[in-house]
Amino acid sequence: MNPLDQALENLADISVGNEVSYWPLAWGWWVLIIVACMTLIAASYATIKYRQKRRVKRKALLTLRAIPLTETSALEEIHHVLRAACIHYFPNKNLSAMHGQAWLQFLFSQHDLNDTQKNTLRLLTESLYQADVNIDPESASNAVNEWLNKALPPRSQDV
To answer: The domain containing residue 27 runs over which residues?
Structure first.
């Protein structure tokens, strides 16, 4: 027998060893899992707060769209939707007692409106106290829709 063959036969078999296990995870993976969970919790909390803060605004916009503009009470209903949303978002401003010029000043102070929108809101407010109105319910609805979208919910310093 060849000495090389004899040396090869004396060698032991190659040991593959155990497979590498995923568990327990290294500390870096635990940190990554904790950071991911905290991010998910923070994002969920922020989303819930965002939706809660805008719930009344969404409801007001849906109610505004549902008002039949052909009925005689449309302007009154549009004004009621606007006032109810404002009372909810500005509880410390005593809005339920405001009317006329004070009410209009409040509306104008919350959002920069163009002259057409200001005039439409002025006519809407005045239409509550007049028998003959010269305002189109659709333009009133559009002006209130614009105001609700831009002014609500207020920034925290406005409340």
So the answer is: 23-53
Helix spans in 14-69 (H): 27-53, 55-66
* CA neighbor of 58 nearest in space, from 158, 153, 159: 153
Per-residue pLDDT, 157: 56
Instruction: State in Å, rounded, how far the first CA of the chain is from the last one.
Output: 99
Contact (Cβ atoms closer than 8 angstroms) between residue 138 and residue 116: no
As a whole number of angstroms, the distance between CA 159 and CA 154 comes to 7
Tell me the residue length of the chain: 159
The pLDDT assigned to 1 comes to 67
Longest dimension (CA), the chain: 124
Q: DSSP characters for 146-157?
A: HHHHHH-SPPTT
Of 53, 73, 99, which residue is a domain's last? 53
17: left (phi over 0), alpha (psi -120 to 50) or beta: left
Residues of the chain below pLDDT 70? 1, 156-159
Number of domains in the chain: 2
